[in-house]
Amino acid sequence: MRPPPNRTKLRVPETLRLSVSAISQAENRVHRPPKLTPRSFFGRNGLLAAAHPNYEYREGQLQMAEAVASALEERQHLIVEAGTGTGKTLAYLIPSILSGKRVVISTGTKNLQEQLYLKDVPFVQSLFEQPLSVCYMKGRANYLCRQKVYDAEREPMLAGLDEINDFRIIREWEKSTETGDRSELREMAETSTAWWKLDARSDLCSGQKCKQFERCFITEMHRRALQSNIIIVNHHLFFADLAVRDQAFNAILPEYSAVIFDEAHEIEDVAGQYFGMTVSNLQIQELVKDTAAISRRKLFATPELDRNLIQITDRAEEFFRLFPQEGRQSFSDHDRFLGQHEETYREILFVLDALCTRLELIEGVVDETLPLVRRARTIQQGLRFFMQSGDATYVYWTERRGRGMYLQTTPIDVSQVLAANLFGRVETVVLTSATLAVAGQFDYALGRLGLEHARTLRVESPYDYQKQVVLYVPPHLPDPRRADFTRRAAHEIEQVIQASSGRAFVLFTSYHQMRQTYELLRDRLEYPLLIQGSAPRTALIEAFRETKGAVLFGTSSFWQGVDVQGEQLSCVIIDRLPFAVPTDPIVAARSEAVRQNGGNAFYDYQIPQAALALKQGFGRLIRGTADRGVLVLLDNRIKRLPYGRVFFDSLPPYRFTDKLGDVQEFFDV
After folding, report:
1. pLDDT per residue as tens digits for the range 624-651
2. Are 289 and 371 in a shared domain?
3. Which residues pair with 569 in a beta bridge?
């Protein structure tokens, strides 16, 4: 694969292609010697040792691979906590290939998807004589719509020099790209508004009626999936598919026998998003804008339609102003709200219905108007569910984010949803992550996810944490809930960073706390400081890697999925135990559900959740056998209060100290 000089192309590797006839002959099975087993690959003298000069035999990796193979063969569910450095990717990828079944592998992020497909799969391919049948799938917004590109050449769609310049790049790329995947366009800004106007999201898609349907990148993605045994997706796409599989013709993924979740600790939250509902003022604004633009391009604009769109804009603004305008707020008193504002609510439904009726009567442009009608009906349904359903199994809440006002519903208990739609229907589900067990047990994860009958396995990390890591908890700092905590914690952070010569992540449980601490330290530290929000996340991580002695201040988005090996990251500082905000609508509703079922919300829900989050944060530090460093937790409740034992029992066996001198001595070695 050779990309153009300034462009990275996600071409489908030749070694990963398999013709339809070959698939038919193989009956969707990988061609392999009949006696090939996980031990053939992961044994001390196995194929991996022969293929890779730096391969290190790991008993835990072999143990996990055999457990995955057994679960696939015997149609059982499996949950595996694989410590950092286990090599879990190959431990589930190779058994999946050997199974001969169609297996969906779901990762936590699109970046992990690409790493798996572009790095790990080609390496595994080198171990097999016959081509592997592997593809990846992303959400529609990641792909280009060819028809929109051709329309943009003839019709006024772009605004400003930036959009015109980006369009030129996209137009040239469209002629040569095989996948249409936006990630190939490295030279185009992530915030490009031109891409947003040209992507393949379903909002304006006419499906099989589109002139470019046969050449469509979405169509081609589905074809590749139908021809593949291994399909690599991300959690968001997987659960978007799972939520609509019962609806005719709406499935995104082809039928599959098994699914493997990497970073499985995330799936409760992601599943909640897709089995819930969201309606926002931005959705309505985009519907109005798209309808106005298409009506002018396709010559069906009328004064009556324009008045209808103005009415929708006015009624939507009036309706969404009725909700709390700051932060996340629970919304529970539907009857009182409708008693006061039913007329405003009915008016927004009425003007949306009028738009649908008007669009349905227009002749000759059904392909363009049908997606608009579908969007308007979906918004109506969402509003009705939020305001009138009264379904007590959901939590209802509102959130203001920037210009957006969101009305949202989320299942209080996703375990029942997952038990019925996932574990009860798919013959094998494998869940793996470095953070699934609390105090050595899987009870919390199994209960939250509704997985009643599953095999379990814990694979310890091969790293020598006693030698590689010191965990420092300052005993003299005040309780994090006290007003003077931030000032005194900042002083402690300063001393630790001086000892580590920078090279640190300072991670916070709130954006406000991060900003306060950063302002206190920005003029007191001599090292380059980076802070979340000043640049895109990927750019900050790259800048940290390349800047000697850098210190990065971040919140939850840097607690997981960040891999910085070597001495560049030698210290991770966490401000406090990462308890979820108890007043958050979802946390409050789930805590109440635990209490109603006779449990203790703090011990049964909040502590296990925080213990797993702390493991994730600390997991940023040691990413290789040669790494060494200091973990700092500024919250000494872990030592003072009885529940701290749960956190200690959930963490690897770090060497512990409560003396700053030990930290300084560690870095002096």
Report:
1. 888 899 999 999 999 999 999 999 999 9
2. yes
3. none
